[in-house]
């Protein structure tokens, strides 16, 4: 093969590795935020005060952890964002009730 094709393949491989690494680190950041937000909801008594939001946040976080073991990190990040949103909604409802 020509030298030009080898250069193209090398750039393509490096670019694909860089993109997959970006998904990994952004997903891990989302997972940490979801875990922290869920911990805050749990500490505020979300299981009894806002059971729908609590269960939603818990299950989305569980699914995100399962998806993290699969190839491709984008779905795990999406479920982690949903978990964070459910936790934040639960915390907002708890604040309204006080």
Entry summary:
With 98 residues, the chain is mostly helical. Helix content is 89%, strand content 0%. It has one domain.
What is the mean pLDDT?
88
Helix content: over 70%
The main sheet comes to: none
Overall geometric form: rod-shaped
Q: What is the helix/strand order?
A: HHHH
Structural classification: mainly alpha
Gap from first CA to last CA:
71 Å
- Kindly state the number of beta strands: 0
Number of domains: 1
Low-pLDDT runs of 5+ residues are none
Task: Explain what you see.
This protein has 98 residues and is mostly helical. The protein has one domain (21-97). The protein has helices at 3-43, 46-49, 51-68, 74-97. The longest helix is centred in the N-terminal third of the chain and has 41 residues, at 3-43. The radius of gyration is 19 Å and the shape is rod-shaped. The mean pLDDT is 88.
Explain the layout of strands and helices.
Layout lengths: L2 H41 L2 H4 L1 H18 L5 H24 L1
Helix pairs in contact: 1-3, 1-4, 3-4
